[in-house]
Amino acid sequence: MSALAEFWAAHEIWRDPLIASIIAGGLLGFLGVYVVLRRTVFVSAALTQLSTLGLIASLLVEEQLGVEAEHASVQLAVSIVFSVAGALILGALHSGRRLPAEAGVGMCYVLAGAFVVLGANRLIHAAHDLNSMVFGNAVAVPLSDVIVLLAVTGICVTVHLLFRKELVFVSFDRETAEAVGLQAPLWNGLLFFTIGLAIPVAARALGALPVFAFLTIPAAAALLMARGLQGAFALATVIGLASATGGYLVSWFWQIPTGATMVALAGLFALPGALLRRR
């Protein structure tokens, strides 16, 4: 009882981070169904790298200008620009015919990773911000980040509610969609835009490692258990919510890293589906 009493007494500390974790987990779980079924898992990895690169670029500029690294809104804005631009480019590659999409994704991932390493090596005063970004540290999320995450989630949900049929049609039956007159590049671009928009704000709250995990594991678990596409979307969202919430609470009470705990819990949710499919 004492542990619970202490937990409730500290609600002002964990309230905003927990809300951010719940929102991000659900949003990424939903978008992950597209990522997994379209076989673009490494696109999410590339965009996560680009988001981290955007953070490093903003931190390097701040250090060069002699400004203290406290401008979280500027850092987040730069991360969003890097991620969305990369998402649109990769979306165009997936719509093209001349160059295999995997080649573009691989180049983007490797080059972004190389620049992340080079940029991180130049950081002096803000290395701790980068560490939280990469490995996940959802224990201290400011209210401003929660508001931005809510706004981005609202945009993504609105887009997917209004254009659900088109996005699903183009994603999973492109040839037929084009035959009936749908512009596949346009809808691909819109889908990748929502993914590129969600990644940096979620990474700001959870860290890049949990973001990549939540874009793959909940969707994979849901697809193993659900019988229909609509059920897979709903179940993946629930698994993302549960993994983020449970992971945060477990990490709080056990005093272990938050991001890694969320990822491990998400992995546990994949076990029942794997066992059922095996049987």
C-alpha Rg, in Å?
19 Å
CATH top-level class: Mainly Alpha
CATH homologous superfamily grouping: ABC transporter involved in vitamin B12 uptake, BtuC
Supply the helix-strand structural class. mainly alpha
Average per-residue pLDDT, rounded, comes to: 83
Query: Which of globular, elongated, flat, extended, rod-shaped describes the shape?
Result: globular
pLDDT < 50 runs, ≥5 residues = none
Number of strands: 0
By DSSP (H or I, 4+ residues per run), the number of helices equals: 14
Oligomer: single chain
Strand content: under 5%
The tally of structural domains comes to 1
Major sheet: size, sense and barrel closure?
none
Short description:
With 279 residues, the protein is mainly α. It is built from 14 helices and no strands. The chain has helices spanning 2-9, 11-37, 41-64, 72-95, 101-122, 127-135, 143-162, 164-172, 174-179, 184-206, 208-214, 217-225, 229-254, 258-278.
Secondary structure layout:
Layout: H1 2-9, H2 11-37, H3 41-64, H4 72-95, H5 101-122, H6 127-135, H7 143-162, H8 164-172, H9 174-179, H10 184-206, H11 208-214, H12 217-225, H13 229-254, H14 258-278
